[in-house]
Design brief:
Shape: elongated
Oligomer: single chain
Length: 57
Amino acid sequence: MSTDHIANPLKLRHWHGHMEPEYAYTLGIAGERFFKEIKENGRIMGTKCKKCGRIYV
């Protein structure tokens, strides 16, 4: 995946067909735990901030 700035959008090209991605996206530790809990137990998990007491989902 490129993060290069597009200087001239008129020079962009496209083509028809299928491209396999060359990367794999992982959910990370928190995301994996969140979705695993939904799948296995039907619950939505959140994290409570120790400082302010808010719960983040």
